[in-house]
Amino acid sequence: MEKERSFILELFVWAPIGGIGGGTIGRGFKGEFCRFQMRPGMYEYHTVAANQFIVTIHNSEGKMIYQKVLSPYNTRTVKFPTLSVFNTSEIVLPKAIQTSSGRVSPWKIHLHQCCLDLAKFPTATTPHVDSCIPGAAFIWTIENNSDSLKYVGITMTFKNGTGGKEDKGGGCWSEMFSHDIDGQTVSGVQIHQTVNKMPCTYAVAAKHKEGVKVTHMPQFDPSGKGKELWEDLSKDGELDSPSASSVHKTRTGEQLACAVSVKLSLQGGRTGQAELALVWDMPNIHFSGKSKKYRR
User: Fold this and answer.
1) Which of 13-17, 39-43, 184-188, 199-203 is least confident?
2) Is 243 helix (H, G, I), strand (E, B) or coil?
3) How far is CA 64 from the centre of its chain?
4) For the Glycosyl-hydrolase family 116 N-terminal domain, which residue ranges apply (predicted)?
5) What is the dihedral of CA 173, 134, 88, 78, to 10 degrees?
6) What is the spatial distance between Cα 113 and Cα 95, in angstroms, rounded to a whole number?
7) Nearest 5°: phi and psi at 219?
8) Could you tell me which residues come within 8 angstroms of residue 6 by beta carbon, excluding any fewer than 6 positions away?
9) Contact between residue 233 and residue 67 where contact means Cβ atoms under 8 Å apart
10) Element (H, E) at 234
């Protein structure tokens, strides 16, 4: 293989999120978000520490008994979990599936995550239009194997950009949204930005359902310690969703991240399920030569 710039080839990425021609975001063996391909034809080998999942557990009295970042990835910028997390991945045509699970001891909470790529691999019976959907659903199954009531929250955080220097270029802003589709409600946060001077919007969302409470934090600083987010979740396992979205745009040198949280109330011996999703919209693109613009 001929390479323009030398780099070390590493086998650390499972089947990526995204579809043919729509851009991709890779996920590593340890669940980290890495290897962004938002720029057509260009891969960026950055692991973004701010893109994470957090578990928060409160007992029946409302006291927090456990809160950790669900990532064994070695980084100094996140708080390490003590639970064992393992990942397996399989490609089941026409979809790619990555699963992970971990047990929170001694609280007897078992977590299962299924990362389901929304794009379908093109086959003889699969429409090619479905192979371009840029995004994935994260389906969480939570088992309460204890004898008492537990409140379990799963929070997804995601920042602007792709992990490179351009992330601090400024002009990025976020807003909350809510949509009703066929009687089902989905809400979350959108991050509006540009990637290599191409408009790009990330969206993190959760599905509303009985027994699941969805809350949001439209903006926090991913370069900081995350104290505001961490303490907000530790109080009651929820985020203090503002009544209106912030329209503050980042300045040069600043970055922006958002968070969407789902909280379940589980009696002893019961199992619950919550759904989170990550999608992006990048309708107008160009290659490095910029000789022609294309629509996705």
Assistant:
1) 13-17
2) coil
3) 24
4) 16-296
5) -10
6) 16
7) -160, 130
8) none
9) yes
10) helix 227-236
Both tokens of 296, joined, read 């996705």
pTM to 2 decimal places = 0.87
* R_g over Cα of the chain: 19
Lowest mean pLDDT among 141-150, 183-192, 234-243: 234-243
**Residues sharing a CB contact under 8 Å with residue 120, sequence separation 6 or more, in sequence order:** 19, 94, 95, 126, 130, 131, 133
Residues in the chain: 296
Q: How many CA atoms lie within 13 A of 261 on its CB side?
A: 26
The helix or strand, by DSSP H or E, that contains position 235, with its residue range, turns out to be helix 227-236
Nearest to 141 by CA among 108, 192, 181, 101: 101
Contact in structure between 34 and 47 (CB atoms under 8 Å):
yes
How do the domains of the chain map onto residue ranges? Answer: 17-285
Q: Match 């009985």 to its residue by tokens.
A: 210
Phi, psi dihedral angles at 103 (to 5 degrees): -115, 130
